Amino acid sequence: MSKLTGKVAVVTGASKGIGAAIAKSLAAEGASIIVNYASSKAGADAVVGAIAAAGGKAVAVGGDVSKAAEAQGLIDAAIKNFGRLDILVNNSGVYEFSPIEAVTEEQFHKIFNINVLGVLLTTQAATKHLREGSSIINIGSGVSRITPPNSAVYTATKGALDAITGVLARELGAKKIRVNSVNPGVVETEGTHSAGVIGSDFEKALIQQTPLGRAGQPDDIARVVTFLASEDAKWLTGEVIIASGGLR
């Protein structure tokens, strides 16, 4: 029997990149998946199609996690379609790098609303249905440790997520709900390509500091998330796992 047979997972921001890889990995272990997307319905539908083609179950559900009603809608979709909720992966996120001179109120609120408020709202909605043995996995970032220049707002959101992971592990521990974070290093995705990270001097510098000598791939992160979602990780909570090939 697969490790997640009979489980139901909501993966936010799952239409591409790391989120898509996580959705497919959880499904491959038997979980039924709510594939959330903010704007790319086509991308989410492609992920659902790939899961179905492999014999799994998934439904694409649109929603902006920074809005309470839409975050609630994702959780409601899990209950409506699959009858329960066992795993929440808070993967939705945006990033913009800029020097401190260029930080604006609009930029600050956009990034914090999705990266931090969205996690809180989706988790708040999920905790009404999560039961003993359930798992919440937040997708943070290695930037909270390496604090690169020109990333004050984005890095601040990921530092907040590290703190939230610790707080909620303690807060939800009495209900036997585990809360952990996976913090990737540089990962090759559609987003890092479009942002100009892949192939840049910045990426090359990071790879030079990475003991395993390469950028990460989405599946590198998905495998860690799948482990945390399973009973193999039943004694882990409040952990921040740096999934970066050794980059610190």
Automatic annotation (TrEMBL):
Keywords: Oxidoreductase. Gene3D superfamilies: NAD(P)-binding Rossmann-like Domain. Residues 7-221 form the Ketoreductase domain. SUPFAM superfamilies: NAD(P)-binding Rossmann-fold domains. It is an enzyme of class 1 (oxidoreductase). PANTHER family: OXIDOREDUCTASE, SHORT-CHAIN DEHYDROGENASE/REDUCTASE FAMILY (AFU_ORTHOLOGUE AFUA_5G02870), SHORT-CHAIN DEHYDROGENASE_REDUCTASE FAMILY PROTEIN. Its EC number is 1.1.1.47. It comes from Alloacidobacterium dinghuense. This is Glucose 1-dehydrogenase. GO terms for molecular function: glucose 1-dehydrogenase [NAD(P)+] activity. Belongs to the short-chain dehydrogenases/reductases (SDR) family.
